Amino acid sequence: MKRFACHYLYVSADGCYSKYVVELEDNGRVGAYFPLKEELSATQWIGGVIIVSPMHELEIYSGEKFADFLQRAMQETETEPPVYAWHIADFDLQKKEFTMESRLVRLL
Fold it and tell me: What does the chain look like in DSSP terms, one character per residue?
């Protein structure tokens, strides 16, 4: 089990949670998410944005707006409910938009 804490967690395209923890099972799938209320052992603060998505493969398209990306990332698939955690590195938290350096990394 691994835990990652972030500034914003998106589990739907409609909104986000602030200062949350995502807990991954040994198979790399999201087992739980909950508010970060205190320092937890074995929790890595990665900051920025994490999204929980049913998509096994995901990428940021050139020039794509964050809202459009969220809609696409949250589309239902033939698999289970949202189970993968993706970290968006180099994201503009104030403007809530991608930067030229933004990249997507699946958390394992």
Answer: -EEEEEEEEEEETTEEEEEEEEEE-TTSSEEEEEE--S--TTEEE--SEEEEES-SS--PPTT--HHHHHHHHT---SS-SS-EEEEEEEEETTTTEEEEEEEEEE--
- Rounded to 5 degrees, φ, ψ at 62 are -60, 130
Say how far apart CA 102 and CA 100 lie, in whole Å. 6
User: pTM to 2 decimals?
Assistant: 0.92
Which tens digit of pLDDT belongs to each residue from 31-66?
A: 999 999 998 899 999 999 999 999 989 999 999 999
